[in-house]
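Today's session is about reading a structure prediction critically. Students often jump straight to the picture, but the first step is always the sequence itself: look for stretches that repeat, for charged clusters, for runs of hydrophobic residues. Only then move on to the predicted structure, which in these notes is written as discrete structure tokens rather than atom positions. Here is the chain we will use throughout the hour.
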Amino acid sequence: MTSLPPEGSLALATPAISMPAGSRPDHRGSWIPTGHMISTRFMELRRRRGLMIALILVNIGLPSVFLLVRLISHAVAPKSYGPAGGYEIYSNLAAGVMYVFGFIVAATLGCTAGSTDLTEGMFRHLVVTGRSRLALYLARIPAGLAIVVPLVAIGFAIVCTVCVAAAPTKINYDGVNIPAHLSLAGFETWATDHPGDVICDLPYNGNIAIAVPCGPNGFISGANGSIGGSGVIIKKGSGAISSGAPQSVTHPSPAIIKAQVLLIAKQDYSGYTDLFLYPSNSLMVETGLWLELEAAIGLIVGLGLASLIGQRTISVIIMFVLEIILTPILSTAHIAHIVNLQRAIVGLATAHLEPSVLPLPFGGGGGGPGAAHASQLVPETTLVAVCVILAWLVGWTALGAWRMMTRDA
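Below is the predicted structure for this chain, in token form.
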């Protein structure tokens, strides 16, 4: 009669399976992507030459060609074409071109990374390797960022270099060239030395109470609407312009002109201080980080959307419509019934994180220097903007990963 060993002795008698010496543990089931998985995803995206060429042309080629044309034009005809660089060119390129096209470039790459395995029939081969599907999805994020971040950085570095190296020597304020870095007293002194430029060209919220010659054809009128010279009435502040028969105008004394000039100078000095010959180092750093954030959002959202839909073309079209059409409209149109829904738009959130001295984004749709452009946006606090951005990043990553983990191989 055979007797059974005591309970628990079978486990002790089972020999332990030892790993071969020098072998590494198998991490194929881990959700954390390995460096090899990330580098493989990176190589797969980089080998798409057509896509890479298109991304380089859009993000680096467009601003480079624009600046090159300005450099050549200024070198050939400096009196007809202004300097190629400067603060105004920098702000328009950063908020208008780099912001929009950086998002489009990143979104296109993200949509490609999220759908290429399905469209090319490689998804089944990835699944049978035993790798975690979550790790396969997450590996696409650092691989895409490794391409997008340098592209945005190179394009932005070119813009910064030209705008600083080829900056003008004087500030252009509403068509008037003014020396830079003037104090209020210095600005008033310059204004009294150039009364014609100040009264005729600088902005002034009010009516000029005197009549002074502005060019060869007429006089700026006072509050009573009198005219002179060729009969052109210009009431500053109201913008009313009309014509009539010449009338005699009593020329004001130098003291009256100086008093009016000082009034305009005091009102315009705050706007003058918001203008720079070229961007500061801190502004360039803040703008660069802001553009990289916008590009990272475009990549991650495009990746999640393409993984969820399974189609690249439809995903790219949706991202284009979101950035170029829906975001500008919903960020500036104050609609009371859906204002909370508008605050959930990620483009509005990134616009509120924009450096305050840059104009309104979305292709330069107004704004101006200073924080005045924020009044055109749907109001939103910085905390809410940060929460909206995090929600979009986490939400679309979760949706894309969930779809990949539940999709049939």
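Discussion point for the tutorial: The two ends are 54 Å apart (CA to CA).
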